Amino acid sequence: MSIEPITTNESGKPGEKKRGIYQILVEHLTGIFFPIINLITAASIIKSVLVILSTAGMLSRTDGIYRLFYAVSDGFFFFLPFYLAVAAAKQWKADPGIAMMIPCAMLYPDIVNFVEQNQEMAVFGIPVPHAVYQCGVIPVLLAVGLLCLVEKPCDRYISGKVRGFVKPVVCCLIVIPVTFLLFGPLGARIGDGLTSVFFSLYNRNPVLAGAFMGFVIQPMVVVGAHWSLVPICLGNIAANGYDVIMPLVGGAVYAQSGAALAVALLCKKDKKMKQAALQAAFTAGLGVSEPALYGVNVPLVRPMITACLSGAVGGAMVGMAGTQCMSFVFPSYLTCVAYVGPGFLTFLVSMAVCFVLALVLTLLQGKIIAVR
Fold first, then answer.
1. C-alpha–C-alpha distance, residues 287 and 360, integer Å
2. What span, in angstroms and rounded, lies between the C-alpha atoms of 224 and 117?
3. Which residues of the chain have pLDDT under 70?
4. pLDDT the model gives residue 196
5. Are 33 and 294 in contact (CB under 8 A)?
């Protein structure tokens, strides 16, 4: 691809790539997400079509066909940790069966109720922090990474006669508590911290707060931290009749679409990436950015940076206009009716601006890099 940087070898000669820590990390992330990117895209398209039909009044959310296919699309993202556990296990040479036991614990109904009902639980006398595990990415990847480390001594020191059933027990005894005590709450803590910074900025300068939220929202999606915003937005609507956070992040979604489309245009030889980028640009245009994030922009980094910068511009525009959301829906042109009111026109324009800006900036990066 022309958007990849030209690097040098140890002798300083151009044309040969020197693999650093970042390149290795990107290879692993690509190896994990590429096998399931088509599934992510398919689930996103199904969900987007349902939104279109329900918004147009052609289908009610109480209809059986809506509920059935919404279960397919939303259920995929709910159980995404299972797919990631298997993909990561294959990528890192861990046992896929043991890896699947991790999301089994994460998404077990009793654990889900523990989070939703704000219950208390302790492991080895240590309180377990609340965290949202459905749709999570970082916790399950960190857990499988730890599993790889734990498996090695198990394979070495546990007798082959009993390894088949002793190894899963030992791995679970170590990995599961660490996941719930450390890895799981990571995204929630990041989200809570960023939310606190946002409200501190918003009270002083809505424009600066909008730029901040527009920049960080998509990285928050990557680590699963964006779910910490949901109860806050719902609480704002219940208490005040409107929310100011959701309008700020609409442009960031379309910035991901623009950056992904630029990647597709820059791809000349890598047909697989070109197809993935086109699909990602389309689904992000419908308001679902996960395919663009996981399959294209995050692994390539530069498109992600330009998308975040473009999202900051859109967030600043909306913050200046004071746009409000009257009901909780994720922002897109398909759901814009929920944003009718003060600053509505600016909200619509901001999404178009973010798309074009990310598209142009990413194309410029690719051309500049290719010339070097």
1. 20
2. 20
3. 1-20, 22-23, 26, 231, 367-372
4. 83
5. yes
